[in-house]
Amino acid sequence: MSLNFADIQNAARRIAGIAHRTPVMTCRTIDEIAGCRVFFKCEHLQKVGAFKFRGACNAVSQLTDEQAAKGVVTHSSGNHAQALALAARMRGIPAYIVMPRTSSPVKKAAVEGYGAEVVLCEPNQQAREATAAEIETRTGATFIHPYNNLDVMAGQGTATLELDEQARELGCELDAVITPVGGGGLLSGTCIAAKGLRSNLRVFAGEPAGADDAARSLAAGQFQPQTGPNTIADGLLTSLGDQTWPIIQQHVEGIITVSDEQIIHAMRLLWERAKLLIEPSSAVVLAAIFDPRFKQFPRVTSIGAVLSGGNVNLDKLPWSSK
After folding, report:
1. What is the distance between the alpha carbons of residues 160 and 197, in angstroms, rounded to a whole number?
2. What residues contact residue 321 under an 8 Å CB cut-off, 6+ apart?
3. Which residues make beta-bridge pairs with 72?
4. pLDDT tens sequence across 190-225
5. What is the mean pLDDT of residues 104-111?
6. CB contact at 8 A, 100 and 122
7. Which residues are catalytic?
């Protein structure tokens, strides 16, 4: 099976009225610095504070009644955990969320607050996968991968459908769309949505230099696994999936890697000038647009930038000396 434009359109109809239609914002100061018009898709204002709710909602809504009765399971310490927990609660079904024992107590409490059962495991990928598999076998729950899942990818792509329409309402046809990339669920869904809308709608990505597997993969023409990621953008630490990578390879024109310093600068600028309170992973897209290497891609006069989330630790802001 593969992802197609009809899947994105169907997902949009499925989640309409459940997921938020998040606003699109602009900032003249940022446009002047960027040298092009930038239209920010504010997914930090989505339910659970991240785009992840779109994919989780679409995946949960497609379960049969028999499947739904047994619940859903995933492993995640981030936004997907909360997104799946909320989507399950809204359908009235069980959710089992495997989280590393080192997870933030705040994140654990948030997932439990949505009614999910949190199961702690050792902080490594093998333990996460093994624990989720045991729960799946024991309960019959359906495993919903955080990004390497076609229904999840389709849900994430709905943000671009809205973004393109909203930019038109503001009097502009977008030349390009840019998203952050970690596991690639958002980026791959964006690719299919963008190319389904217009074959000449270009797709770019921003990626932390300290977690640059997608950029390395695109440059090499073959999948390069993530090794020892180290970046402030903690939502972008995972490797691409075998479902997301082929779509990215086919459709993404360029991936711009940026340093943590660039990410922090872009994040602070969005807070101060645009009043958009986003997390570091979201700021990667603006850091990429500001990077001189992005200017090497010709004829980008208007770009849609997906701000992926706003779940930031207010006690540890990256520009704070505390």
Report:
1. 9
2. none
3. 95, 142
4. 999 999 999 999 999 999 999 999 999 999 999 998
5. 84
6. yes
7. 52, 77
